Amino acid sequence: MKITLLGTGVAIPQKDRVQSGLVVDAGAQKGNSPVLFDCGCGVLQRIFQSGYKHTDITNVFLSHLHLDHCGDLLALVKANWLCDVTKLNLWGPVGTRQWLDDLLKTYPYMQDKAKIEVTELSPGQVVEVEGLEMECVRTVHALPSLGFKVTAGGKSMLYSGDTEPVVDIIEAIESTGGIDLLIHECSFPDTFDVTNHTTPGTLAKMLRGSSIGRIVLTHLYPQTSGFEARMVKVVAEACGCPVEIGHDLQVIKI
Ligand SMILES: [Zn+2]
Ligand SMILES: [Zn+2]
Separation of 39 CA from ligand 2 center, angstroms? Predict the structure, then answer.
């Protein structure tokens, strides 16, 4: 499985981080296309920079409907349509269908250009797409949200989306005796008292003793700048596995 971080930032612009997005790829040699998770502003450009073709992305999973996770979705649809690809499978939490309908109403010229099939997902649901098995995990955020545990070829990773630390993520990790990679949001350093998000301290407390091969921190607010080493240390001490700060266009193979 190949994972490419496209955007590791948030709604506030930063020099080297666009908004949320990552691609998971079970392997083109097996006939599978890449699957996109979240599509915040800047992600369409990052798809191009990553070497993937935007026209190959016909499955998009949204963790939730905050703008920094879906702002480029319609831009992707338009880019694909201009290149004669009109089919898109859109997967997301409850509310995704209404959100898309409302969005398309504001761009009437787009309405008959795209054939978007929406599937609303619930925690615990498992779907198979492009050689990947996706298990939806309950997360806790300001609105309906999901994390995704992705398994292929005996390897597994979990992407948290935006969330407070939740036991459901631990349960998903431990249900198969551990995972190879955790990509978890870590929005702020511990000097901030936050709700709806995670800090190194709250993440470390949640993950202590769990079986994870490698952890990549993402969804980094500008306020994390200068705190990176401390953030990594706090999480690594609790988890005993390699921990790093994610960066845009980083490629991880598991
Ligand atoms: Zn959010
Ligand atoms: Zn976010």
Answer: 11
| Number of C-beta neighbours around residue 233 at 10 A | 13
Residues with Cβ within 8 Å of 218's Cβ and at least 6 positions away in sequence, in order, are 5, 8, 20, 22, 183, 184, 185, 186, 246
**Shortest-distance ligand to the CA of residue 141:** 1
**For ion ligand 1, residues whose CB falls within 5 Å:** 66, 162
> Which backbone phi and psi does 58 adopt, to 5 degrees?
-120, 10
Determine the straight-line distance between the first and last CA of the chain, rounded to whole angstroms. 5
**pLDDT tens, 43-92?**
999 999 999 999 999 999 999 999 999 999 999 999 999 999 999 999 99
What's the 66 CA to ligand 2 centre distance in angstroms?
A: 6
* 51: Cα separation from own chain's centroid: 19
Ligand 1 centre and the CA of 237: distance in Å?
Answer: 27
Q: What one-character DSSP code corresponds to residue 150?
A: E
93-109 confidence digits (pLDDT tens): 999 999 999 999 999 99
CA of 145 to the centre of ligand 1 (A): 8
Residues with Cβ within 5 Å of ion ligand 2? 68, 162
For residue 154, give Cα distances in angstroms to 60, 118, 178.
Answer: 23, 28, 12
3-class DSSP assignment, residue 76: helix
Is the C-alpha dihedral spanning 79, 80, 81, 84 positive or negative? positive
Burial of residue 124 (number of CB atoms within 10 Å: 0-12, 13-18, 19+)? exposed
The helix-helix angle for 228-239 and 200-207 (nearest 10°) equals 10
